[in-house]
Write a structure and sequence with these properties.
binds acetamide, 36% helix, eight-stranded parallel barrel, 17 helices, binds zinc ion, alpha/beta, 487 residues, seven-stranded mixed beta sheet, elongated
Length: 487
């Protein structure tokens, strides 16, 4: 039988893996020792190994045939090391995230061993050291154009954890509606059409999503998209527009009432998702004609000697200040206005100048450039929307550089990482998981493994191995973490 060396078991590809002498036999039952505070990681390991027919039992003392998970102060929070020697596996992790990712990597070794064809599953002894290149390894879900129920969001989070992704950005408002409930919605509904009562997350649901995410080392980034993309909202609150009888999607950016109202909204976001460290303020795709005609906006431009785009930038800078005053970091999409002060910029257009402007302004950058990271784009020609949007297959993602056209040295430290965006104009809830599962492997490696270490052929082989062992299926349908109180 043809044997595949253990490096082919792992995806994303680790920083370093060295084969050492001997083999480890996954002979039942293996004993497992875990620090008390990481009991959840232990339960996850027991469950994941059971999927491949392997029995692991918790034990106070470990000797032969054992697995031990240890906290290692010298490793970074997301880093882990694995030593496989005959009769013993040791997983060392810097923090809880590293512990989770180490358990996930061990479950991939178990899957490979189960495929070894031996009577007792075994894998080669090895030393693995691993940590991600980027902290920002994200997915954005557009909860507006099509809504996702909490169960689907949970499923996305489980899938993200299996592929070691860390940030779930929820696009909660747009012209078609708001999916975060606000006190003022008691008597007014910001709707662009078809927004039903159930298509709003209650405060309890958002809190539940954030708590669930944190168990999987995923953080939630809520987005309130301003000052554009607000037509539905302005239909129910026209007093916040420049011209109540001639609405566009834009809020009036000179209005003190708008700023007061949005301050209340942002306070409410923080109240509902207290764990959020970032708040996304949108800022994309604004149209200036109403601002240019509005007496109040024109007055402010004149007084401050500003162009319309400069006024827009001041407005966004003020709102970023509100986010900062709430102890959170603001994020904005790159737009036609210059980057607001102190924001993280998320690049999405195929535009070198967006990146250039963000770099000159000294803003940290998230790479979501559409041609590589818009997951609503069709995977292939069989997609019903293939003629309307560019194809984005796995190879396109895999070959993309998180640093755009720069190399690592030129880029410096301003790139936080990558985020795939799943816009849902064409993606109903039932297609969300499918849209993600076809490309999430490439995203995972793109965000985790430095470009210089990547090879597409090698990736394809590892991906195929994980699929054949059923690991990928367990990862994508949530079974890898499923069936326990913690799920
Ligand atoms: C965007 O696609 N408007 C960020
Ligand atoms: Zn105005």
């Amino acid at each position: 039988m043809k044997k595949f060396p253990v490096p082919y078991a792992l995806l994303p590809k680790p920083r370093s893996i060295c084969l050492t002498e001997g083999t480890f036999a996954f002979a039942a039952p293996l004993r497992l020792r875990v620090p008390e505070e990481w009991r959840l990681h232990g339960e996850r390991l027991v469950h994941a190994f059971s999927l491949f027919g392997m029995k692991v039992v918790p034990a106070e003392r470990v000797g032969n045939e054992s697995i031990e998970i240890l906290r290692c102060e010298t490793l970074k929070e997301e880093a882990f090391g694995i030593s496989v020697v005959p009769g013993r596996i040791e997983l060392r992790a810097g923090g809880s995230a590293g512990g989770l990712y180490g358990v996930v990597a061990l479950s991939q070794l178990a899957a490979a061993a189960a495929m070894s064809g031996e009577e007792i599953p075994c894998c080669e002894c090895c030393e693995i050291e691993d940590e991600p290149e980027f902290r920002w390894r994200g997915i954005m879900l557009d909860s507006v154009r099509h809504f996702q129920r909490v169960d689907v969001v949970r499923q996305v989070i489980r899938m993200m954890a299996a592929w070691r992704l860390r940030v779930l950005h929820l696009h909660l408002t747009d012209s078609q509606g708001w999916r975060i409930r606000m006190p003022w919605m008691e008597n007014r509904k910001p709707e662009g059409g078809g927004n039903r009562e159930r298509e709003v997350y209650s405060p309890e649901e958002l809190l539940e999503i954030a708590k669930f995410a944190s168990k999987f080392e995923v953080e939630i980034v809520p987005e309130i998209d301003i000052p554009g993309h607000q037509l539905g909202f302005l239909r129910c609150c026209p007093e916040y527009s420049c011209f109540p009888d001639r609405l566009s999607g834009e809020l009036c950016i000179s209005s003190p009432e708008v700023k007061r109202f949005l301050t209340g909204v942002l306070q409410e976001v923080v109240r509902q998702i207290p764990s959020c460290r970032f708040i996304h303020l949108g800022g994309d795709e604004t149209e200036t004609s109403n601002w240019e005609a509005c007496p109040s906006c024109r007055k402010l431009m004149r007084e401050r000697n500003l162009s319309v785009r400069e006024l827009e930038r001041q407005f966004m800078t003020e709102m970023c200040g509100v986010v900062r005053s709430l102890g959170r970091t603001p994020i904005c999409w790159c737009s036609d206005a210059e980057p607001p002060e102190g924001a993280v910029m998320q690049a999405w257009r195929i535009s070198w100048s967006d990146i250039g402007k963000a770099r000159i302004a000294g803003c940290p950058i998230i790479n979501s450039i559409s041609q590589n990271f818009y997951f609503d784009f069709p995977l292939d020609e069989t997609d019903p929307h293939a003629s309307a949007m560019p194809i984005l297959n796995e190879e396109g993602i895999y070959h993309s550089s998180p640093y755009f056209f720069l190399n690592r040295e030129k880029a410096g430290n301003e790139f936080l990482g990558v985020e795939a965006c799943l816009w849902t104009e064409t993606v109903p809830e039932w297609r969300v998981l499918r849209k993600l599962e076809t490309r999430i492997q490439a995203l995972s490696e793109c965000a985790w493994t430095p470009v210089s270490e990547r090879s597409h052929g090698d990736f394809l082989f590892r991906r195929m191995r994980l699929e054949n062992s059923a690991w990928t299926r367990f990862a994508n349908n949530g079974q890898l973490f499923g069936g326990f109180p913690f799920s």
